[in-house]
Structure formats: structure tokens, C-alpha cells
């Protein structure tokens, strides 16, 4: 009885979670102009979307910013975690970690507003560069949080062994450390990518007039009312997120399989 | 040898150090600094005095906190049972992934979906007509704002609670049952207290963003609810009064620190059950 009740509750929660998404995608195939009654199947909105050169340019911008910022953030974040992990002083380490998490917990508007002041003071023009820099900035802490646990798992005896065998610092990094923490680096890269694709508020503050990302464009179009082209866009985005989730899940699985294998080997 | 490697690794730390200085410390310092400047760029305390003497600002702040509180409570009421039941399922990893999946959909697309669902002739009103209540004005009301905000926040609350449940050793539950506690007693005295850190993490993840959700107040709330975030956005991008915007930003930061202190993981001094 209570089992049935709990299942009913879960089903209800899942329906509520997915209803808006399904709703959006269903109407992306409706022949009408509104999201009120289904008017028969059509690919028209997808055709509109793929011939809307402004939207396509914005999608390309968004992907470019996401990939580029995630790459740079992963690089800086990984180096940063190596540094944090090296720190032996407890107080320094804790304060570094606390500073690292400031951007993780700050509300988006604070990040956006403070970056806007920052860019204006440095006279950095608002546009592609300011958006890219902001995205890199708010992605770095999540990369650190993904890489650091892997570094902690690494045993120091392995490093000692490598050094005793004559490995240089460079070799140590490229042959021992990086391969070991690579699942963390990949996870960090994926999280950074999703943070970038998902961001609206920070970009909205620092984007200026000429440059736009998908979130900002959806916001300005949604303020004008219903436009089924946005539904088509969400259909494409949903497919894209499914692929990303599958990729992320696959990496997670691969790393946990590796862990299990190692556990079996040592026991 | 050790010092040599150490010196060499400091070199790798430079980009990260630069990031800390330029994008963490400097912007925070700048927002404090900016909050002491008036519209015509003169140093002044007037932003703060205006803020704390103006009924409008104070009311807005209280309102924002109140709405964030409501959103957090509703999110918690839905998320705790969801996480709890999910944890009892067979393929729970898969179901958990299904909870996370909606968070990968752009938040604006979800808000946009609700514009359609809540519109005059939308799905929600069709349902209300169907059960005989008749169409209502749903979009641009406070209730719709709370509903959509709760909808967006639910996964962020489910995750930490689920993780806390996952960390909970089943031995405690078995022990409690063996000692004759009823299901409800086990939950109230054992499971809930031990998963409280997860709830606190969830509150942190939901309450602070709820203070600053400005796109929802515009798209769904129809500007009826003004949150701290909406006020900051308005001062920065519409009225261009950065000083006042920064002052509200400082208030938001203070609110954030208070929430963090209240929900921070006070490390228990005694032996923690592990």
C-alpha cells in the first residue's frame, strides 16, 4: 500500500518535471503559431530555425564560447588544483579552497554585476571577449572541484617511485599525474561546458549590444511572446543535452569501472 | 630536490593565481567600492542611508527573502520525499539521472514553456475549464512565479538529500527497527537527523539563487514580484545607477553569508557516526 503510494508520488514528480519539456517539443511540431492547440504535424518550425541565419550565428557563438571557455577553464583549473594540492600549509590551503568556492556560491547577478564593473574599469569592450572571460572565470572553480578529489586519491608513493626512477618534473606531470587524474579533468570539462551553455544572467550583464548568446536571445524573444521557432530550438537543445548527458555518464561509468578493476586487483 | 620541484610547480600556479586575483577578489572589492559612489561619481554613504531609510527598498528586500523562503520550503517538501522514495528504487542511479537531465535544459527554455502552459488558453487553463473551475489569470501572478521557481529548483534540492541518504548506513535503520522503533519513529529520530546535512546543502543551493532570479520575475511574475536580483539588474542595466545597484548587491552578499553560516556544516565535535 505505502509502496504504491510512494510510486504514485514519484510518478507525479516525474510527470511535473518532464511535462514542460515534452510540451515544448510537442508544439515544435504543431502547424499553428501558438502553444494552445495542436494543429497537425509539420517540420516547418525546424525549417524556419535552420534558415534563420541570425539564430544560427548565435548558436555558433554560444558553442564557440562554451568550447573555448571550457578548454581554457579546464587548463587553468587543472593547474590550479595541482597547486592547491601541493600546498602543505593548512591555513593557506583552506583559504585557497574558500576563495575557489566564492564564485560557486555567489548569485549570478552578483557575478554579472561585479564583472560588468570590472570590465568597464579596465575598458575591456563588452562583447565576445568579455563574455568569454566571464565564462572562463565562473567555470574554473567547478573544474577544480572535479579534479581535486582525483589528486587526493593519488598515492604519494607513486610519485616518489617515479622521482626515484629519475622522472623529471615534466615527465612526472605528463606520464604519471595527468593520466591518473584524467577522469576528473574530463568531468570538469563537461561540467564547465554545461555551465557555459546554461548561463544566462552573467552573460546578460556583460554581453553589450553586438554580441548575443542563445540564452540571451531566447530571453529577448520570449519577452515578445510565443514563437514556435523557439520550440524547435528546444527540441534540438534537448537532443544535444541527451548526447552530453550520455557522454558524461559514459565517462563516469568508465572511471568507476576502472576503480572497481583496481580494487579487485589489489584485494 | 623537493624545494626544486616545488619552485617549478609554482610556475604552473600563475594562471590560477591571476584568476583568483582578477576574477574573484577584484570584482568583489569593486562591488563594495562602487556601492559608495553616487550617480555623479562622488564618494558618498547616501546609497546605504537611502537603502535603509526607504520603505520601498526595505519592503522589497523583505519580500524577496519571503519569496525565497516560500520557494525553498515548497522545494524541500517535494524534494525530500522524492529523494527518499528514489533511494529505495531498484535502478536508482538511472532514475537519479532522469532527475538531473532537466537541469541540462536551458532555464530560459523551461521558463518559456511555462509562458505557454500558463497562458490564457494554455494547458493549465484548459485543465481548469475541464474540471469546471473555468479559466483564470495564471501567468504574471505571484503564485505562478513561485511555482516555476520551485519547478526549476527541485533537482538541486533532490541531489544533496539523495547523497545524504546514500551516505546513511543501513545499520542505523536496522538497529532502530530492532530496538522496536516504528517506521515513523525511525524516520523522525534516525533518518531525518542524519540526513540533515543534505537538507542544509539543498537549502543553500536553492535559497540563495531564489533571491536573485530576475528573469523569472520578468517572464513569469510579470514584474509583480521584485527580488533583490531584479532590483540589481534594473539598477545596472536600465537606470544605470551602479552605486545603488552595488549597494543592493552588498546586501545580497550579506544575505548569502548569513544563509551560509546558518546552513554551514558545523562539524560535530563528538565522534561522528560513520
From TrEMBL, chain A:
InterPro entries for this protein: Bact_Polyamine_Transport, MetI-like, MetI-like_sf
SUPFAM superfamilies in the record: MetI-like (SSF161098)
Compartment(s) of residence: Cell membrane
Topology term for the membrane: Multi-pass membrane protein
UniProt KW keywords: Cell membrane, Membrane, Transmembrane, Transmembrane helix, Transport
Major subcellular location class: membrane
Pfam families, per database record: BPD_transp_1
Residue intervals of the ABC transmembrane type-1 domain: 59-249
PROSITE patterns xrefs: ABC_TM1 (PS50928)
Tagged with keyword Transmembrane helix: yes
Residue spans crossing the bilayer: 7-29, 55-84, 96-122, 128-151, 172-194, 232-251
Superkingdom field: Bacteria
Family: Belongs to the binding-protein-dependent transport system permease family. CysTW subfamily.
Designated name of the protein: ABC transporter permease
Source organism of this protein record: Levilactobacillus tangyuanensis
High-level lineage: Bacteria, Bacillati, Bacillota, Bacilli, Lactobacillales
From TrEMBL, chain B:
Membrane topology (UniProt): Multi-pass membrane protein
Residue stretches making up the ABC transmembrane type-1 domain: 61-263
Spans through the membrane: 12-33, 65-87, 94-118, 240-264
Statement: the UniProt record of this protein carries the keyword Kinase: no
Organism domain of life: Bacteria
Compartments in which it is found: Cell membrane
InterPro entries referenced in this protein's UniProt entry, alphabetically: MetI-like, MetI-like_sf
Keywords: Cell membrane, Membrane, Transmembrane, Transmembrane helix, Transport
Primary subcellular site in the record, as a coarse category: membrane
Pfam families tied to this protein: BPD_transp_1
Family named by the database record: Belongs to the binding-protein-dependent transport system permease family. CysTW subfamily.
Protein's UniProt name: ABC transporter permease
Source species of the chain: Levilactobacillus tangyuanensis
Lineage, broadest ranks: Bacteria, Bacillati, Bacillota, Bacilli, Lactobacillales
